[in-house]
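User: I'm preparing a small set of examples for a lab meeting where we compare how different chains pack in three dimensions. I only have the primary sequence for this one, and I'd like the structure in token form so I can line it up with the others. Please keep the answer compact; I'll paste it straight into my notes.
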Amino acid sequence: MAYDKHGRPLVAVTGMGVVTSIGQGKNDTWAALTAGKSGIRRISRFPVEGLRTTIAGTIDDVKVDPFCAPMLSERLAVLAAEEAIGQSGLALNDFPGALFIAVPPVEMEWPQREALAKASGQPGDVTYADVLKAASGGQFKAWHDLFIFGTVADRVADTFGTKGSPISLSTACSSGATAIQLGVEAIRRGETNAALCIGTDGSVNPESLIRFSLLSALSTQNDVPDGASKPFSKNRDGFVMGEGGAALVLENAESAKARGAKILGYVLGCGEKGDGFHRTRSSPDGMPGITAIREALADAGLSPDDIGYINAHGTSTPENDKMEASSCTSVFGERMASLPISSNKSMIGHTLTAAGAVEAVMSLLTIGEGRIPPTINYAVPDPAIPLDVVPNVARDARVDFVLSNSFGFGGQNTCLVFGAEPK
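Assistant: Understood. Below is the structure token output for the 423-residue chain.
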């Protein structure tokens, strides 16, 4: 049997799918990403006059009805999973394993609340009791079901015929990576031979935009949308919201080989560390991020010298980029001056709940294609965080092992190590 250095089953990737603001599918997304194309644009799906931030990496050509975050997130998940399962060669509607899916927090959105208020019969002066009374009517049952956290997972599980109870999770910006970690752990424990791991987020809506803006987390460089996200640059001022979905089919490597599947790479290591320092800010000493990186390397049975590229969390916020650079330097030391690092978020924005899964696909494509995507808009390096940022143009390089970082609001830090082959 194929085991890793810890005596556990190796976890292979046999299928990948992705949808972002720069493309639907791996081929289109990868071509745009390595060409340095941005998907960040002025928001057109709702009025933005008077808002401090008016840009995002929205996916406008995917239509759902009613339009809301749960419906769009579900659709993006389905599109990504269709591509991933199709590549794997497994049954599209009878998937032989479990579903682990990262979805954004779910709550009723403004259009639905306004409709409920009108249904109360007192739209001029609506109380919470009025809204509850209207919501209890049978005509709103579909909305009730839609705005339950587990609904997206249930519907995706039904679509693909996954086995067992689907697992929904939401750990902020690390969610997509955590979904992959849960799939890896289930295969290692022998609970399943296959796992469908998805990260999805279609939550660019007025409430989300305003909330992040109130936290002073978003870029306000609206005049040139495709230049606003600039990770690791001195003139960065915040992240840009993005939408996306990504799916990985994970399998016990021996089972995958036995059925003749093409192995695209391996998930070799997972590391995580919680940070109770603050609801949004990172611990000043960077220890949670440092620990997550070290645990991922140890789990993979690798040393820092084995990593050939870091797919950075790289949000473009002043604090996060500084913390990530400090954490990486603490682990990799002087190598950071020559260890390539880049951030996909410079082009697709921060896809939030989906980010870890989207970046996992990009990490595996980097290994498979021998090309490192750039960090665009990198014109003014920050002297306080000297790194080998791949600037503006993709770099051809052989990469055997990639570290992908996901550091979430609220302190959930998850790091993954991918490889072409186990060492």
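A couple of notes for your slides: Residues 92 and 160 are 6 Å apart (CA to CA). The chain has a mean pLDDT of 92.

User: Perfect, thanks.
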